[in-house]
Amino acid sequence: MSSDRPCPVGGERRLLTGWGRTSPSMATVVGAEAVGRGGHPSMGFSGPALGRGLGRSYGDAAQVGGGTIIDATTLPRLFQLDREAASLRVDAGVGLEDLLRRIIPLGFFVPVTPGTARVTVGGAIASDVHGKNHHRDGSFTRHVQGLTLVTSDGPRRLRPDDETAPFFWATAGGMGLTGLITEATISLPRVETGYIASETTREPDLDAVMRRLIEVDRTSGYSVAWVDGLSKGRSFGRGVVNSGDHAPLDALSPAQRRTATRYDPKVVSIPPLPYPQPPGFAMKAFNELWYRASRPGRRIESISSFFHPLDALANWNLVYGRRGFLQWQFAVPDGNESLIAESLSTLAATEGTRPTLVVLKRFGPAGHGHLSFPIPGWTLAVDLPINGAALRRALDELDEKVAAAGGRLYLAKDSRLRRELIPPMYPRLDEWRTLRDRLDPERRFRSDLSRRLRLTDPDPETASS
Amino acid sequence: MNDPFGIPETVLVLGATSEIATDMAVTLADNGAQRFILAARSVDKLDELDRRITDKGAEVAARVTFDATDLDSHRSLIDGIWSDHGRVDLVLVAFGLLDTAVADGSVSPTDIAMVNYVGAVSLIEPVAEKMVGQGDGVIAVLSSVAAERPRGSNRLYASAKAGLDSYARGLGDALEPKGVRVLVIRPGFVHTRMTEGLQPAPLSVHPPAVSDALMKGLTGKRSVVWAPPPVRVLMSVLRHLPTGLYRRVTKGR
After folding, report:
1. Does B223 lie at the interface with A, CB-CB under 8 angstroms?
2. Which of A351, A451, B50, B227 has the greatest number of beta carbons closer than 10 A?
3. What's the pTM value of the predicted model, to 2 decimals?
4. Is the domain defined by B10-249 classed in CATH 3.40.50.720?
């Protein structure tokens, strides 16, 4: 979409979507300078408002039709690194990729990175993102020491360890609905190199993939499994398990030592054309290729190839065709392993549906955010190109099973969940709403997601739009 | 807003007593649309549709009386619907009169143009403004293959639909960069109470085929959809026939 362009402070009407390129809506986009670090969002514009970073949430979380989008990426860059304490104070609009470029040469890493480095610090906090180290380190907001939140009441400093903690945890995973996060202080882990000592295994079926994930989590800081969503019969759920840790300097080859703290991911783009939805055989071929090309064994690889392989193609979201795609991601507690198998077989059997990119991971203990997604157990994420009504119905039915199992869907990925399932999936919703209303009594901060799921206003008729 | 599958949350049906509109509304409810605002000339004829929508698990939020020819009332009607319901994701413009209505003497020839074209434009204009304001939405306009080329017997209906069809496509071009879609639906001959006794044209369909076209239009990216799809080819041929030949093939229709 067009959100990469800088925008004038005065505001510009722009059509916005999430990464899945579905359900566009028009909003007035203003630069974060219009709000300023200590500013006041009600100055200068009226109606609903919402912060937006790099637009990597898949659905409608970072858009508000008819309202004002505050583009957090336009802020002047604050960068205060305390090397002794390993803590960094930055603007919320800075992307993790830019951050990594600066901190890896200084011997630091980000505490948590999702599968793309093209998210902002503010977005990482608002979605309370998780990464391959969730089983060991939890989600992003566990590593945030404090943040500044601007609401219609003005700026507030929130911390997880003082009397502002309830507001901090309403904001951590609060989907930007408590106010605009303008800057944050995060703890950084120290690393010797910009390389990962990784191990790859190929597993013949889903059971083996799950067993392997449990096993590697005992020893490895990072782990993830890619599952072939189109595999059938005896090889149903076959996959590739990647695990690893930051490589110490002495693990590198002499050639690698010369670039030990370099982080310089290579990126290419495809032309922005109206691509057709890839046919089934192409997706099958892609999965077959991924499985075969994943060479088992141990190796030393770069940060970007281990954590962010898809970032190498800047606009890979175009390849799913003009109708776009959705990512369906849920988490369920241990004991619901059969629901993972059932989800994969249901989706593969649904008319016209081809689960293309399937990722499985184990979650460690949950964080404190009221609407934070991770809960201990399993999480499965499936990319699904938009198709007919059969997929819609299949997902609706699977959502109910996820809710019944005590699980939930990830709001940062969602574009279609039925709102009745939000209270069972997020039992602390009412507590969150109370805190939210104290932070933003005028209910200025809203999104298309919050309206669709009735997160901020249980009764939509009272909503002015 | 419309979900990734094109399914709206709240639907306003203008002309809800029409059989085609009824079938579209029930189909939408069956596919996940959640709330309906039903507008018709006489709302007491809506009990049956209300029940069918409710049976599909959706809700009829309001019934609204409107008169397509009462142009002065249209803006406040639309203002009222938006202020009562916050927003509407899909508006179905589905009211209309056939030339046969003139024969029973209840309406004049210009009334056909008044209802099918002027009334529709008068309602769609404020709807378009509301949708631009809310940042997204779809306006689905029931046109007709008759908009492509009139016959002697349907000249009033055909000319009014041609005007509406042209207006709707132009509106779609204007609103596309503002996040609002206009979907033009062109059915062929549809078997309904309104067309009972008329001689069906080739490729005639029943209302569910028109609903299929609507659903295809909502989930896809096209701005014009046909019911049934092959009628597009037929009309393309008919439109280019020399007048003499056209009159001969449509003789008696």
Report:
1. no
2. B227
3. 0.93
4. yes
